[in-house]
Amino acid sequence: MRSRVLAASVAALALVAAGCGGGSGEPTGSGPVKVGLVVSLSGAYQAVGTDMADGFNLYLDIHGGRLGGRTVELFVGDEGDGPQTAVPAAQKLITSDGVQVLVGVVAGGSFAGIVPLLADNEVPLIGANARPDIEDVSWIWSTSYFSDEPGRAIAQYVKDHVDGPVFAIGPDYQGGWDELRGFTDEFLRIGGRLANPDGETLFTPFPQTTNFLPYLSQIAASDAKAVYTFYAGKAAIDFVTQYRQSDVADLPLYGAFLTEGTILDAQGDAAIGILNVLNYSPDLDNAANREFVAAWSARHDRAPTTFAMAAYDAAAVLDLAIAAIDGEVTGARINQAIAGLGQIASPRGNWSFNPTTHAPVQKWYLREVRRDGGVLANVMVQELATLGADT
Fold it and tell me: What 8-state DSSP symbol labels residue 271?
């Protein structure tokens, strides 16, 4: 993984060098556009941050290191594990490096910590991972989703396909609260019933929980007919492998992000049959995705993830916005140009920004872990819902 992180950083520096070269056709009235990429290149979210860096760099690579026809200087800040490292990294990018726009951000806590820097410096942020609910989004855009949307998107499918109560379990931190709230609120609203004895989600201590068997025993003692969960990273590996070794191994398992990325290989056959919800699947059949997957596969030996796709789309948003600016590029003008964008052609399918929330109006997909050509893959089963239009 460290070699991948270094590769992402080297790629970013190479693009900076390429961008500084200028060239014919450069729009007048502005020098290179300075972009700050804030992602986790160390710590618990390193794999997610690496995918995001690789996705953003891929778009730049395909487009010759330019966005909107202008050369790009890309500055990279290590978000680390959260706001304690993310905020200083973002502060440096804004005040020392003079970036005109920030992109990335893995953790919800980091997102909230960076927000106060934006308006004061007139620097927009294009978030490329799960976004918490922020009251003032004047300088915030998201190419990803709200944290509660995956659960909302799959709730009706679970209600229709499970004959009985569902047990809800997840990690005890902001991301887990949001992800599980999205499912339980919608599931209960449409008439579903939770198998949890107190009718509330069972939250496991994070990150210290590595032995899930006591919690799985609680599920076994309930009248659950299925389980819904959200875990990521090593916790997802531990949960899935122990799930298949427990007394609830035969219960259908539904989840969000439970099998996304390199953790799927670590889960192995224990992941087969898991039904999961996401806004992207590498096997979606559209022109933008075929181009994305082909370019990604030529450079990487792992499947593209929703994290890589959202960062790739963040670059696409910047490409369109900067192209619409006549003259000097500033943070304020980038922010204004993004507000004027319409539909965006994306590997996930066409989407657009909700003008009120500044988050995507997009489709969500049901995927199942299967063997595909001898390798484990999240295979798209069907469309679930389109979310994001409501305010």
Answer: G
Residue 218 tokens, joined: 């609680």
**Please, which residues bridge with residue 378 across strands?**
369
Distance between first and last Cα of the chain: 39
Cβ proximity of 165 and 223 under 8 Å = yes
Report yes or no: 90 and 38 within 8 Å, Cβ to Cβ.
Answer: yes
The reply to whether omega before 207 is within 30° of 0 (cis) is: yes
Tally of CA atoms within 13 A in the half-sphere of 193 that contains its CB: 9
Report whether CATH 3.30.70.100 matches the domain 149-278+365-387. no
Q: pLDDT 10s per residue in the chain (391 long)?
A: 333 333 444 344 434 433 333 344 566 555 899 999 999 999 878 989 999 999 999 999 999 999 999 999 999 999 998 899 999 999 999 999 999 999 999 988 898 899 999 999 999 999 999 888 888 999 999 999 999 999 999 999 999 999 999 999 999 988 899 999 999 999 999 999 999 999 999 999 988 999 999 999 999 999 999 999 999 888 999 999 999 999 999 999 999 989 998 899 999 999 999 999 999 999 999 999 999 999 999 999 999 999 999 999 999 999 999 999 999 999 999 999 999 999 999 999 999 999 999 999 999 999 999 998 889 999 999 999 999 987 5
Q: Which of 169, 350, 369, 112 is nearest to 264 (CA)?
A: 369
309 and 297 Cβ atoms separated by less than 8 Å? no
Q: At the top level of CATH, which class does the domain 2-145+284-358 belong to?
A: alpha beta
Which residue type is seen at 133? D
Q: Where do runs of H (alpha helix) occur along 1-77?
A: 2-19, 46-62
Residue extent(s) of CATH 3.40.50.2300 domains in the chain: 2-145+284-358, 149-278+365-387
Model-wide pTM > 0.85: yes
